[in-house]
């Protein structure tokens, strides 16, 4: 599962700058969460979900439903 070619699906028409320098610590999922949490209170917050098996990150403007 490591070393694959990752794909990001970003269908929403919103993005935000991340000003450097900035660093995150933790596992892959934690780092993705930390990055998107920076803009949790933005006018249009963005949410990300990652799937390691498919090497896929999906970005949405709606929180992921928990099943």
Write a structural description.
This protein is of the alpha+beta class and 67 residues long. It has one domain (1-12, 24-67). Helices cover 15% and strands 19% of the residues. It has a 3-stranded mixed sheet with strand order 1-3-2. The model has no long low-confidence stretch (mean pLDDT 88).
Helicity level: 10-25%
Radius of gyration from the alpha-carbon trace, in angstroms: 12 Å
Number of domains: 1
**Helix tally?**
1
Low-confidence stretches: none
Q: Averaged pLDDT, please?
A: 88
Can you list the strand order of the major beta sheet? Answer: 1-3-2
Structure summary, number of beta strands: 3
Structural class: alpha+beta
Compressed to H and E, one letter per element, the order equals EHEE
Strand residues, percent? 15-25%
Biggest β-sheet description: 3 strands, mixed
> What's the N-to-C terminus distance?
25 Å
Could you say which overall geometry the principal axes of the C-alpha atoms support? globular
Protein name: Pilus biogenesis protein PilL
Organism: Pectobacterium brasiliense
InterPro entries: Pilus_synth_Q_C
């Amino acid at each position: 599962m490591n070393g694959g070619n990752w794909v990001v699906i970003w269908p929403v028409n919103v993005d935000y700058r991340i000003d450097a320098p900035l660093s995150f610590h933790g596992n892959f999922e934690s780092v993705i969460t930390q990055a998107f949490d920076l803009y949790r209170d933005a006018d249009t917050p963005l949410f990300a979900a990652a799937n390691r098996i498919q090497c896929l990150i999906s970005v949405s403007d709606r929180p992921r439903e928990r099943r």
